[in-house]
């Protein structure tokens, strides 16, 4: 298949990263998880004792850090100033603060530029919230992946229960709803379906079914 760019957006817990990673594997494309970049900035902000709502502080933290994504054997790895933070960016603390950090315009400008640089050679599957609307508006395939809030919380629960045994599905559902609200209501590049994105509701679909649906959209394009 010729090299194209594939944008996968959608609310928290819709399965974007699992699906995007598998689509990339099948096509031999590069997978980029942009949420991990906002999470890495949040990790740095919290580590420096900066309040996530202090826009100037958050901007300075983002500007002064060196952020690097590297492909690893279990998916994308994230490095901040040379330190591998992949294992530290999916905690409840990061979940609770990442959407405030992601609201800051300068943070978005910085990360979107890095993301756009990664897509120039094409052959990228990128997931996030604003990929089809802002990062790669000319992506050949755009998908808006969603599922009911309860199903999204249940899926997150299954993913996290081994590492975070105290979490409950209700807590996760609340966390997801709160993040979706901040992401959808923010001023700069909010979470919204691009008019030309294909809506895929995965509530009653299996992972292979969703992957096949996206591969089918890619074949139509190629
Ligand atoms: O995809 P993930 O749930 O890891 O993203 C974490 C948070 O990062 C989102 O809730 C959102 O606030 C922010 N984000 C964003 N734009 C993106 C990707 C993620 O604002 N392209």
Automatic annotation (TrEMBL):
Record protein name field: Cytidylate kinase
Organism of origin: Paenibacillus chartarius
EC number, as in UniProt: 2.7.4.25
Primary subcellular site in the record, as a coarse category: cytoplasm
Pfam entry (one): Cytidylate_kin
Reactions mediated catalytically: CMP + ATP = CDP + ADP; dCMP + ATP = dCDP + ADP
Keywords: ATP-binding, Cytoplasm, Kinase, Nucleotide-binding, Transferase
Annotated positions binding ATP: 10-18
Domain Cytidylate kinase per the UniProt entry, residue ranges: 6-218
Compartments it resides in: Cytoplasm
Family the UniProt entry places it in: Belongs to the cytidylate kinase family. Type 1 subfamily.
Family annotation (InterPro entries): Cytidylate_kin (IPR003136), Cytidylate_kinase_dom (IPR011994), P-loop_NTPase (IPR027417)
Molecular functions (GO terms): kinase activity
């Amino acid at each position: 298949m010729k090299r194209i760019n594939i944008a996968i957006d959608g609310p928290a817990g819709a399965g974007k990263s699992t699906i995007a990673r598998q689509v990339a594997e099948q096509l031999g494309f590069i997978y980029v998880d942009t949420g991990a970049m906002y999470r890495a900035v949040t990790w740095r902000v919290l580590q420096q004792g900066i309040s996530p709502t202090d826009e100037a502080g958050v901007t300075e933290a983002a500007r002064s850090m060196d952020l690097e994504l590297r492909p690893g054997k279990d998916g994308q790895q994230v490095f901040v100033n040379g330190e591998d933070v992949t294992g530290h960016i999916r905690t409840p603390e990061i979940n609770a603060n990442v959407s405030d950090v992601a609201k800051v315009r300068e943070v978005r400008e910085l990360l979107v530029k890095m993301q756009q640089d990664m897509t120039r050679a094409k052959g990228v599957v990128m997931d996030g919230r604003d990929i089809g609307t802002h990062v790669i508006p000319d992506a050949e395939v755009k998908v808006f992946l969603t599922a009911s809030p309860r199903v999204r919380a249940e899926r997150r629960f299954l993913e996290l229960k081994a590492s975070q045994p105290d979490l409950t599905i209700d807590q996760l559902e609340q966390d997801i709803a709160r993040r979706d609200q901040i992401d959808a209501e923010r001023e700069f590049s909010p979470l919204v379906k691009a008019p030309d994105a294909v809506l895929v509701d995965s509530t009653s679909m299996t992972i292979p079914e969703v992957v096949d649906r996206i591969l089918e959209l890619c074949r139509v394009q190629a």
